[in-house]
Every structure is written in structure tokens, then in C-alpha cells.
């Protein structure tokens, strides 16, 4: 608290990101990063960009990157917006497209940045409860609203909503913006990008942080109708004209072009996930079906917080959420390499063997 703070700052409750420990030698399965680094083509593009030209401002509109993303998704350049991580893209979407008279809707268990943006921009919201099985039920969203936002697959549950359900939501909600946050879609859910041409109220956001192994570069994007994209550009150019530096633009462009590397690392993560799920079930864990690069899991006899602490003593970091209460018994485990997941399963087996 300080008398120098603006009224807005007094009222904020900022997002708390997962820990980035300074120690090495940890099995880090807490922030959904990709266990495989970026491909060689990305590293080469970054090295080529580390040059005298860094004294010059970058392209303010990241034209080449937007074009490459448009080609990847089979849309026009006018349908693509890019930002400094999809968190920035989402923030602009809240500001530009979700601030109207009625409250916006999002799930009660979801990405915890959404209520933070609402606090920052003064947007009213209503949380819609997930089902007992932690699923989004589209019927619960069919009511007047100022907009709708949810991740697909949802975080931190990992559960995916089928594309026909998303289309049903769009059909019955023609008058406010629907943002589908597809941060994890490449690990096994169906993308709604193909619906953008038919539904002018649909904005789909993606990140290069997870499936494209570039959390450290900070690049995300949105695909939507040109009018929605123009709104995002208007906010961007009222905030920061150069959200992506030269390195970010070059690395992200190479990452979008290197499909083979991207597809192979996604396949590896998915196959490790399937093995991890089976191993956890063998140990008596209950695991929610995941279409993401993490799983939400609990053991009937152990508390999520306690297990997280015991794993930490063994240098394995996973994420535990105290709130909402419904997910407090769970741990969210990022899919690592096969070796990292084997270490996790070994440690859990060891913990379960100890007398309670
Ligand atoms: C990781 C994540 C993001 C943000 O990704 P960045 O591009 O790294 O900012 C957005 N939404 C969800 C649901 C995420 O888990």
C-alpha cells in the first residue's frame, strides 16, 4: 500500500504464476512448459537475428509472422493478431471485446488470469460451475452475457469440449464475443479456428509457449473475424506499438514453419501422457481425461497439498491449487520427458509406501 498508488492499483489482485525455481537439478513439472526445446530451425533463425539490425525497431505489425500464421491456419492476414504471449493477446481481448454492460461468463474452475483481467479493466463476470465431472456444459452458457471465454482444453482440468458443442454455443450466442483460449489444443483437442469464417463473434487464441516450446520467447496470437482483429490492433496501438521484438518475430516465424518438429514433439508428449496416466492409475490415482500437456489427478487417501510437498522434498515440482476448494485435493502435473515422468511415478510409489 502506498499513497502514490492509483485507485486502480489498490483494487488489483494480480495473477500468481507457477514458481520458476533458481535451483537446477529439479524435475520441473509445474508450469506446463514443453520438455523438448525449440527445433534447430528456430535456433538458427534466432542466431541470424542477433545482429547489428537490433539497433532498429522491429516491424510494429509483425507482418511476416502474421502472414505465416494465416497460411498455417488457412485464413487471411486480416484474421490474425499477434502479441507478447497469449496472455497479452487475451488482455487486449478483454479490454477490446469483452467489456460491455452485461457480465461475461467463464467456468468456475479455469485459467486464473481471467478474473485478474476483469479486475484490471473493470469487467463484471459470472462464474459458471463445471459439472461434477469437471466438464463445461454448453447449456449453462445459453443466457444473456457480455461475452464468453474459456480454454479448450480447459486448464487446469485438461478436459476438452467437442467442436460440435462449441458450434452449438456459437449458434445460440450470436450477439457477444466468444473467446476460445486454445493454449493446449495441439495436445489432443479439436481447434475451433475452422469456425472463424462462419462465426464473426468467435476469437480463438493460441500460444507458442506450450506446443511450440517457446515459453521464453513470449509469443501468442489470435485468429478471428477482421473486425475483431481490428479492435485488438486498436488497443495494441494505444498501448505498445512494438509488442514483439525482432528475435521474437524471427523465432516465432521459424517455429510456425517447422511443422515436422512441432508435430513430432506433440506426439512424444501425448504418448508420455498416456503412459503417465496408466502408471498413476496403477498407483490408485484418479486422473481426469486430459487432452493437454498436463493431467489433474488425486489419490483417494492423500491430500494434494501434502503430496505436492512430499514430491518437493524429492526435488520434483508439481502444481497445487488451494482454490477453488473442489480442486484442492488434486495436483496438476505437467507432462515431462519419459525419464522425468518415470522419476515422478517412482517418487509417488515411494511416498505411498511410507506409513501414513
Ligand atoms: C499458458 C496459458 C496461456 C498463456 O500463454 P502465454 O502465451 O505464455 O502467455 C493462456 N491461457 C492458458 C489457459 C494457459 O494455460
What this model shows, in words?
With 356 residues, the chain is of the alpha/beta class. It folds into 2 domains: 7-37 and 260-353, Aspartate Aminotransferase, domain 1; 40-258, 3-Layer(aba) Sandwich (Aspartate Aminotransferase, domain 2), CATH 3.40.640. 36% of the residues lie in helices and 13% in strands. It has 11 helices and 12 strands. It has helices spanning 7-10, 40-49, 63-73, 85-97, 113-121, 163-171, 226-236, 246-257, 259-282, 304-313, 338-353, and strands at residues 27-28, 80-83, 104-107, 125-128, 148-151, 178-181, 202-207, 220-224, 286-287, 294-298, 316-317, 331-334. Helix 4 packs across helix 5 (113-121). The radius of gyration is 21 Å and the shape is globular. It starts with 6 loop residues before the first helix and ends with a helix. The mean pLDDT is 96. The chain binds pyridoxal-5'-phosphate. Pyridoxal-5'-phosphate (PLP) binds at residues 32, 85-87, 111, 151, 155, 181, 183, 207, 209, 215, 220. The modification N6-(pyridoxal phosphate)lysine is found at residue 210. It catalyses: L-histidinol phosphate + 2-oxoglutarate = 3-(imidazol-4-yl)-2-oxopropyl phosphate + L-glutamate. Residues 26-348 form the Aminotransferase class I/classII large domain. Homodimer.
Amino acid at each position: 500500500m502506498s499513497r502514490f498508488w492509483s485507485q486502480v492499483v489498490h483494487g488489483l489482485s494480480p495473477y500468481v504464476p507457477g514458481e520458476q525455481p533458481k535451483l537446477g537439478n529439479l524435475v520441473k513439472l509445474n508450469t506446463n512448459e514443453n520438455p523438448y526445446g525449440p527445433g534447430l530451425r528456430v535456433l538458427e533463425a534466432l542466431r541470424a537475428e542477433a545482429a547489428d539490425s537490433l539497433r532498429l525497431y522491429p516491424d510494429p505489425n509483425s507482418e511476416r509472422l502474421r502472414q505465416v500464421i494465416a497460411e498455417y491456419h488457412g485464413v487471411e492476414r486480416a484474421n490474425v493478431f499477434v502479441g507478447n504471449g497469449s496472455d497479452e493477446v487475451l488482455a487486449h481481448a478483454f479490454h477490446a471485446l469483452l467489456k460491455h454492460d452485461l457480465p461475461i461468463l467463464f467456468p468456475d474452475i479455469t485459467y486464473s488470469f481471467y478474473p485478474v483481467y476483469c479486475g484490471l479493466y473493470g469487467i463484471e463476470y459470472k462464474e459458471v460451475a463445471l459439472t461434477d465431472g469437471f466438464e463445461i456444459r454448453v447449456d449453462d452458457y445459453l443466457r444473456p452475457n457480455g461475452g464468453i471465454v474459456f480454454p479448450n482444453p480447459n486448464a487446469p482440468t485438461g478436459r476438452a469440449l467437442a467442436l460440435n458443442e462449441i458450434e452449438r454455443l456459437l449458434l445460440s450466442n450470436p450477439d457477444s464475443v466468444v473467446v476460445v483460449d486454445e493454449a493446449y489444443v495441439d495436445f489432443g483437442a479439436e481447434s475451433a479456428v475452422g469456425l472463424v469464417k462462419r462465426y464473426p463473434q468467435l476469437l480463438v487464441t493460441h500460444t507458442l509457449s506450450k506446443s511450440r516450446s517457446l515459453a521464453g520467447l513470449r509469443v501468442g496470437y489470435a485468429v478471428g473475424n477482421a473486425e475483431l482483429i481490428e479492435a485488438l490492433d486498436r488497443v495494441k496501438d494505444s498501448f505498445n506499438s512494438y509488442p514483439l521484438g525482432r528475435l521474437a518475430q524471427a523465432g516465432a516465424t521459424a517455429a510456425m514453419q517447422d511443422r515436422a518438429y512441432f508435430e513430432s514433439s506433440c506426439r512424444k508428449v501425448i504418448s508420455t501422457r498416456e503412459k503417465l496416466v496408466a502408471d498413476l492409475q496403477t498407483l490408485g490415482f484418479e486422473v481426469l481425461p486430459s487432452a493437454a500437456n498436463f493431467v489433474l489427478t488425486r489419490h483417494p487417501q492423500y491430500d494434494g497439498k501434502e503430496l505436492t510437498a512430499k514430491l518437493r522434498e524429492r526435488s520434483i515440482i508439481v502444481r497445487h491449487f488451494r482454490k477453488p476448494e473442489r480442486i484442492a485435493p488434486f495436483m496438476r502435473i505437467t507432462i515431462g520427458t519419459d525419464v522425468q515422468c518415470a522419476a515422478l511415478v517412482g517418487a509417488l510409489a515411494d511416498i505411498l509406501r511410507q506409513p501414513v
